[in-house]
Amino acid sequence: MAHQVLEPGFRSLLDENATVRRLATDFVFTEGPVWHPKEQYLLFSDIPPGIRRRWDKSGVREVLKPSNMGNGMTYDRSLNLLVCEHATSSVARFSAGRREVLAGHFEGKELNSPNDVAAAADGAIWFTDPTYGRMPVYGVERPCQLDFRGVYRIPPGGGTLDLVVEKAMFTQPNGLCFSPDETRLYINDTDQANIRVFDVEGGKLKNMRVFASGIADEAQPGRRPDGMKCDALGNIWCTGPDGLWVFAPDGRLLGKVAVPEMVANMHWGEADWRTLFITASTSLYALETKVGPHKESFMSGSI
Q1: Best CA proximity match to 186, nearest among 118, 121, 130, 254
Q2: What is the pLDDT of residues 243-294, one digit of tens each?
Q3: At 134, is the secondary structure helix, strand, or coil?
Q4: What does the DSSP 8-state code read for residue 10?
Q5: Could you give the domains of the chain?
Q6: What would the pLDDT profile of 133-147 be if each residue is shown by its tens digit?
Q7: Over the range 77-97, which residues count as b (16 or more CB within 10 Å of their CB) and which as e?
Q8: Inter-residue contact 247 to 238 (CB < 8 Å)
Q9: Fewer Cβ in 10 A, N or C end of the chain?
């Protein structure tokens, strides 16, 4: 499968002939990859069977089952694992083998099913809350208590959950990521097939605008925005039809990364942060890139 170069700048990010290597397969639906910067391994979710898995040079093994159908994952500044759990409708933190629920309700009602999560440098945790974890296969089928799909912020150190977008803005908010300086937050919507960008000021989102739209191909159901990451140069890498779509900071589509299976998410890793790990349906893939991620809080000292 050939990658598509739509703007010359794409070649500075990725060799157009770079091979997408399959590292492991025979999973059900992979998601939520995150790289441990000190111990050099990748965690990822296999949602339907409720398994958290680990990949390193020795192969893949289970690290937690049941995982409450965990989906998106990241680390906080102390390298505690943060997980969006479909089955419990919560964001949980794992530290020294202890699980702690950080968010599970808003205004007295259960969250829908937290999906993807980002930890800011100030210690705040931001996450999306669509309804996919209340659907068959990918979650526990049950009615929603909330009548909207929101995006939330957990303040540094915990506290009252803050709804950071208008209730009617998103249909199914999904992937989210910060710009390198964390002055902007990008959030995609799977149903609307678009990416919005906001200015971040004092823990609030302002000046919403549509960053990219039309990330869909009706001939390929399900191949719409899902996972999303920002690289060190401010480019946005988002799942889409045929693999990954790469956008410049000004919204221009630079190119498309071809992946053999439907992609759900991605995360850079390895010692030089130049290997892009891709969770794609039944398999885990890797791709060597010329750029790495922007420096997130948990990467301090390792990038």
Answers
A1: 118
A2: 999 999 999 999 999 999 999 999 999 999 999 999 999 999 999 999 999 9
A3: helix
A4: G
A5: 4-299 (2.120.10.30)
A6: 999 999 999 999 999
A7: beebbbbbbbbbbbbbbbeee
A8: yes
A9: N
